[in-house]
């Protein structure tokens, strides 16, 4: 690991002020630190935002639930509010990594990294999330722009993620047997008039499967999923799963999610 | 006195391990220590045109950068293959040069090119990045089955063939096949595995200029042999000026039996720079450069009579040795494999042909089971397939062909001393609730799931082995074991063993044996191992040999202690030696109340005279002290056997295989500590299940290891397992006085075919290891297509 300057920011303002073209924010460090140790990334300045109280915590309003950027996965998994309002979101958090990761990793870190196999991005898409940053609010569908890429500008800091509370929802994933990241993860959220089906792991970036969303909006049943031919075009293919297998898993896990709703 | 042997005695060593007080090589820090980083080949096969260290040498903190040329200049020898195999045509095996640091070619990704030694690890890493190696990349040979048809990667080794070995009788086997009613054929791949010991390898070299002695601390299963090899073949230091210490070692599974390039280089470098040098592998280095395991491609045929009698077996295997021949690489797919292809069946005619090939992959050597898992996988898959093709019940077919009379001379090599195969099969059927399988299968089917049951009735050969026998087959060492039992004057006992514990629990089990035998409390027995400066030369731990061979050496040293104790007691008690009995730690004169405890005798042996009230004259001819050494050379291998039964439930939609039930009944002979044996079975089964369902070292076509981290290499985890049902039967080994057969490898040997036979039973078609979800999904999908066509 190359040497760097370590800063602990006391508030968001100080954090953004310290940011430069050669800096990174550090929350749980579950990706940043291993990347630095492996020499895949190096920074001049590391800005630790863990100490900023305002960035952590869970708030429920009537229609939405807002989770601070540095809230740990374990806090989301164990939150009574989340369990009550959006149980599938608590379950998703419970299924991320292992206990060590869940006790350090944060929601803001997960979505800022936008790993194509991460779990949280699918929740953002399915639950029509709004990403609150130091300078604006971004709709989830515009936030995740590509593999490990987001709409965040240099130095822009995620402050919180606001999820819309659905009528029913479920997240089902087929984990990579080695890493336990999602080979395919399908998040189904049923609102009053429409259904969102977000898929992670299958392609280079999380996406809303419009065909499945449309079909389930009309008829919320597994037979509606059966009628859809999920195409393998554009899907990832690696030693763990071919594109065809992933396509099949998308349909299978969409059905599992519908069943679990 | 309650017996320690046979009890669930808590492990003496666990307190330190569970409280983080183990002292592993990486925990050792010496004064003035430097840090080493190895520059490794990023290519699978390349010519080294130039190693330029100019820039790196100027990097901050660099103490020395050493290359293959420096090693050659100092006349440091290369790594060796320790077991000579002779081909069927009478020619010797072909072994390439294997310098500890490559000079002109590299042969796998991770091969060693240079070592950078610096004041700090960071300095060494930064400088290593600046070492500029000019490679001419050559086309890599990667696939086991294509190696013989590819470019020769080593000079003077045509077809990349190390040897073409035969065990058995081709003409007798042909006659048996001619007489058969049915020939059952199978093609199998035994997937390459990466050992993944919890503690990565590590070495520290320390040179003492005053004694001119090198000390090498290393994570190793076999310190004496490591010293011998590095002295005799690498010529780093003469044996008497070279000490090897293997302190606490966190797992080996075979991958730490032999010295590696790093051990040679670190020991040599410490003397060269006259400062301690420390190297600790990072996990990816372990994936790339620890010796791997298995990697066979096999075609086998079984000749059967229509009544289900097996009359012959043919086995043709290609075994991948990797880039070089590692120390025990050549024996693993021959004498540890070939004799075992017969399983525990009475098969009168057989041959096993093995072609061992070099490829541009990490060297392959012994890994938990070493040869026996490959043999067992082959014969147990083939037996299941034969039963299916004959339309016979899996259990009946196996039982019909079991060896029933002991001792039994097999058609290939082994003379099996004892066993009762019906006994463990019957017990396994009971604990696995075989009778309830049909109901469980239909329950699964009603949920849209497939259920299968798989059997593995296995045998293995442990306790390697009679030195005369193995040396006649090409072993470069004798395979006895040593022990020294030393009474201290105050009555406690230090036991030195040539075996080495890296998780097995020797500190406890050997203390149990000594405690019972000499009547000394467990806490007053200390077991010492892992240091060539302490205790006699030993042969280390592998092949489930520690108890059967090392334990017996201890037992024999105790016999000598008791014999001397009797002489001393007789003199002290003024009785005839033949009247003195020894029981529960006391020497008692028959038909009298005269006795001495063994502690008193020990004390007397160290104070041979009169001191106040104590009168302890030694018998004439006896020397003072109470310390005895024994070297034990076994008269035969030992033959653990057992039945493992596995049940899986498969979701055809996702291809996921759930291990639903696993039952194991093993005959390990006499069991010293059932708790430790359970742990060994749990660990072995977990590794076997890992091979069957998850693990695979995957090289791409250019020879890059794709599975070089835990992100891609799938280890089995606790949540992959149901509760394992474990039980035992016992027919004591007749080849050692303890009756012990060995238990360390059984799980890894028995489990892969049990699991795979269950998967095949569930999906109704052959499938290769590891049976990953996608492979199973594909098989289910294809089957569905075939079925719907048939309908």
Description:
The complex is a heterodimer of chains A (261) and B (791). Chain A is an alpha+beta fold and 261 residues long. Helices cover 33% and strands 25% of the residues of chain A. Chain A has three domains: 5-48; 54-164, 2-Layer Sandwich (Uridine Diphospho-n-acetylenolpyruvylglucosamine Reductase, domain 3); 168-260, 2-Layer Sandwich (Enolase-like, domain 1). Chain A is built from twelve helices and 14 strands. A five-stranded antiparallel beta sheet of chain A has the order 4-5-10-6-7. A four-stranded antiparallel beta sheet of chain A has the order 11-12-13-14, with helices on both faces. Chain A has a three-stranded parallel beta sheet with strand order 1-3-2, with no helix packed on it. By secondary structure, chain B is α+β, with helices and mostly antiparallel strands. Chain B has three domains: 14-138 and 198-251 and 256-289, Aldehyde oxidase/xanthine dehydrogenase, a/b hammerhead (Aldehyde Oxidoreductase, domain 3, Alpha-Beta Complex); 386-462 and 637-790, Aldehyde Oxidoreductase, domain 4 (2-Layer Sandwich); 480-632, Aldehyde oxidase/xanthine dehydrogenase, molybdopterin binding domain (Aldehyde Oxidoreductase, domain 4). Chain B is 28% helix and 23% strand. In chain B, strands 3-5-1-12-9-10-11 form a seven-stranded mixed beta sheet, with helices on both faces. A five-stranded mixed beta sheet of chain B has the order 7-15-14-13-8, with helices on both faces. A four-stranded mixed beta sheet of chain B has the order 18-28-29-30, sandwiched between helices. Chain B is globular. At the A-B interface, α12 of A face α19 of B.
